[in-house]
Amino acid sequence: MRYMKEIVEDKSLDFFTKWERRGKAAYTQEDIDVIRNEWAKFMVKTYI
């Protein structure tokens, strides 16, 4: 989900180049937790 969010939010449309330089870098657990919390808040706000 974090990967998709970064693609959508990339205003310069230069996402591929940025990730190409990153190589095989991975998201940290903290990165994953942040997007998980954002998604949960969005779902609660939207559907409750």
UniProtKB/TrEMBL annotation:
Organism of this sequence: Rosa chinensis (China rose)
Top-rank taxon: Eukaryota
Official protein name in the record: Uncharacterized protein
